[in-house]
Design a protein that fits this description.
With 280 residues, the protein is α/β, with parallel strands linked by helices. It has ten helices and ten strands. The mean pLDDT is 96.
């Protein structure tokens, strides 16, 4: 049975894509930063479950909380990149994307003392609008990316992308690990994040089982803010954004504990190495 990839997108509650048009980046430093405490809770959750994971972390977070990044690494987890400050890749030029990668990598490697070889685009924003992104990741020496959501969604999605691991750049070793897709009432959704939090657990469990039944690892993700029901409320955000962000925050930690106990989990870099060998 394959070991599945457990991953955390480390960003604070005010940095999410749903609030990007409501909360200005210039206001971030004046807000209640909760990412350190919430991420420590995630580290403790994984310790109780006896699992290792990958923390795709913003450079912004690493710059402000280097001791947190060191604790992630010292606990045996992988520190990987989520970009600098959650700008979607399709909003950047190729040159700006390269600069964003470089700044985040320096902050993460300085804080963790480990090499950063994995990347996840904010809001799964590598798609048909960014045909240059994977080539830049390969040029910058990344071993893998987990930046594609092969679904249709109003915030992200590359519906026609492969559902399993693939090499996005001919002649390069870079592996892309798309997020696993779950199915509910005839609709395809990502296996993780808000869909995992809001929908019955069996939706994700069935997606993991389908992947494993095909000898593939499932790729699962969530955010530290999703286990924090006491976080501030953004009252002026659109109703849809508020529903997506705040629904069932209090249930998330228990759901994660049960999911972790029910399947085999590990770091994304280990899954990428397995897939690289398979695709060789």
């Amino acid at each position: 049975m394959p070991v599945n990839a457990l991953s955390v997108d480390v960003e604070d509650w005010f940095q999410v894509g749903a609030f990007e048009n409501t909360i200005a980046r210039s206001d971030w430093d004046g807000l209640d930063c909760r990412v350190e405490g919430n991420t420590d809770r995630v580290i403790d959750l994984f310790a109780r479950g006896g699992v290792k994971a990958t923390f795709f972390t913003l450079g912004w977070v690493a710059h402000r909380y280097p001791a947190l990044i060191r604790r992630i690494a010292e606990a045996g987890h992988e520190v990987a990149s989520h970009g600098w400050d959650h700008k979607r890749v399709f909003t950047l030029s190729p040159e700006d994307f390269r600069d964003d990668l470089a700044a985040a990598r320096v902050a993460l490697e300085d804080a963790s003392g480990t090499a950063v070889t994995g990347y996840r685009a904010p809001s799964f924003s590598i798609d048909t609008r960014t045909p240059w992104a994977h080539a830049i990741l390969a040029e910058e020496g990344y071993a893998y990316s987990s930046s594609v959501a092969p679904i249709r969604h109003d915030h992200y999605g590359w519906h026609d992308a492969p559902r399993g691991a693939f090499r996005p750049v001919a002649g390069e070793s870079l592996i892309e690990l798309p997020i696993t897709i779950a199915r509910v009432l005839g609709r395809e959704v990502t296996a993780g994040g808000g869909f995992f939090r809001m929908l019955p657990s069996r939706v994700t469990t069935d997606a993991v089982k389908r992947a494993n039944g095909g000898d593939a690892a499932a790729i699962f993700y969530f955010h530290p803010w999703e286990i924090d029901p006491a976080q501030p409320r953004v009252r002026n955000a659109p109703l849809k954004s508020r529903i997506r962000h705040y629904t069932r925050l209090g249930a998330m930690e228990g759901k994660l504990e049960r999911l972790i106990a029910g399947h085999a989990w590990g770091r994304v870099d280990a899954v990428a190495a397995r897939e690289a060998a398979r695709l060789a």
